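Justification of computing resources. Each target in the renewal requires a structure prediction run like the one illustrated here; the chain below, 214 residues long, is used simply to show the kind of job we budget for.
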Amino acid sequence: MFIGHWAPALAVAARRKTPGLTTLFIAAQLVDWAFFAFLLLGAEHMRMTPGISVMNPMDLYDMPYTHSLLGALGFAAVMGAAVWLASRDRTAALIVAAVVVSHWLLDLLVHVPDLTLAGSPPKIGLGLWNHPMIEMPLELGITFAALWFYARVRRPAPLRVAVLALVLLALQAINWFGPVASEVTAGTSLLAFFAYGSATLAAWWMGKSAQAPA
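Resulting structure tokens:
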């Protein structure tokens, strides 16, 4: 799952009294922001193994802190606490925490067994990356349905909606059809940061033109 992780952020941002869309976009991918940072630091590891799944050559063999359910809950607690300290809004904090945890739940659908509950085996994953005819329409469907719902409720500027849609579509197309790296380098993390940052920036720009829900 890639752009599909932002579907919960867009969906909940349509309701009243939620954190800003930028905050929610960061929350939705916080687990992966952390993973690629840990990859740079050598705290977690991956390698490129063509054929490990039909759609994704990343062999995510060591990510006990970010991609365990316990780890996701920990990141959710930290970000939720930060939002509560900044806003004193318990509902907003709980929403942000739930969006963080949604990352692990969506990954459970698509990953081959490389996720854990608490950092050690058994490893789990339902493996939709091996079924592109299911995974691809699912990812696009939930993402753009959530964007449509947000746009319908919050009525941001249409041009800004279109820009975010194009950024998300371009990132997903590169992820699916772009050249595949043969090895993991520092550039792997930097490219991921650029992708997440680009989408978040486009979401911030769109959100600035949104109206309060009726």
